[in-house]
Design a protein that fits this description.
By secondary structure, this protein is an alpha+beta fold. It is built from 10 helices and 12 strands. A hairpin with a 2-residue loop joins strand 10 and strand 11.
Length: 319
């Protein structure tokens, strides 16, 4: 009888020990999970600093027409800077201001945000220098994305600008493809690159000609160069510089009613060269000259301007 009671007591002790051990193990696991943010009620997703880059836009010869780049901004809390001259000496090599302008800005007080010329690989060295010089309380650096258009205003009608709606521009028409997809895991997310049919040389030529006619405010002139077989739009200019003044019907008319494309095409079709066009069109004068696969188009409120522009295009491009 006593042995039975002893055995029962021993079993109870063992059970209590095992339960206590299990409790300790489970408690430890819960603690570890909570530390890692798995079941913590205060859990927040890890902060992923994904860098997003919009896709590049290239011309037909692979020159960049639009691209993203990171700009590093030096932020200065001038009110917390007790040594403006020394700070000026430290920062002047990294900003696009002369030392006098920079020191005057710092001495004026307040907060400053100055675009720097720093590259990504220089950031750590710059921050270490700021710490070493004990300017970390008044100087910090931040990053921003900037869309760059190396051709400036040349080809703007075809290239477009990010965020601006357009019937013809690449930035607007192909916005979904150019936009980088959202990501919570990738360090970098990039949009798709696209290649336009735009010819830099031809675009510069049309811009040069149209700019001269633009001085006459009463004159309307639209110029275009297309590939008749592929329907590619190589260049486009209008004297006003306004997209609303583009006559899309005239462009399609020059292609025998076919739709044009701003993208570079891989395939061509064999077509007989059409007869040159010289007629009134939508209240203006239309001239189209077919030279090889090219269709040279000029549409103007003045017949002599349309004819003269075609001659200039042929002479400057030797088409």
């Amino acid at each position: 009888m006593k042995n039975g009671k002893k055995r029962e007591k021993s079993n109870r002790s063992s059970l209590i020990f095992l339960l206590l051990l299990a409790f300790l193990i489970v408690s430890r696991l819960i603690y570890l999970y909570m530390e890692d943010g798995v079941i913590n009620t205060l859990y927040r997703d890890k902060e992923y600093n994904t860098t997003y880059f919009r896709g590049n836009i290239y011309d037909r010869r692979s020159s960049i027409l639009a691209m993203d780049r990171n700009i590093y901004v030096i932020n200065i809390d001038a009110s917390r800077c007790s040594e403006p001259s020394r700070l000026t000496h430290t920062l002047s090599p990294y900003v696009n201001l002369n030392p006098i302008e920079l020191e005057n800005l710092i001495r004026s007080g307040g907060s400053l945000s100055l675009e720097s010329n720093l590259l990504m690989e220089e950031i750590d060295r710059f921050e270490n220098m700021i710490d070493k010089e004990r300017f970390d309380e008044c100087v910090s650096i931040s990053e921003k994305r900037e869309r760059v258009y190396p051709q400036k205003e040349h080809g703007r009608l075809i290239i477009g600008r990010e965020g601006i709606e357009s019937e013809i521009s690449a930035e607007s028409i192909y916005d979904d493809e150019l936009t980088a997809p959202l990501s919570i895991t990738a360090a970098v997310s990039e949009g798709r690159d696209i290649t336009l049919a735009l010819s830099e040389r031809m675009q510069y030529t049309l811009d040069h000609i149209s700019s001269r006619y633009s001085r006459n405010n009463d004159l309307y002139l639209m110029l275009a160069i297309l590939d008749y077989s592929t329907t590619e739009l190589y260049a486009l200019a209008v004297s006003s510089g306004n997209e609303d003044d583009i006559d899309y019907e005239a462009i399609r008319f020059a292609l025998s009613g076919r739709d044009y494309t701003i993208l570079k095409q891989d395939k061509t079709i064999s077509l007989l060269k059409p007869e040159d066009i010289s007629q009134e069109f939508n209240g203006n004068y239309l001239e189209v000259k077919y030279a090889g696969d090219f269709a040279l188009l000029a549409l103007s409120s003045l017949d002599e301007a349309a004819k003269g522009a075609i001659v200039e295009i042929q002479g400057l491009l030797a088409l």
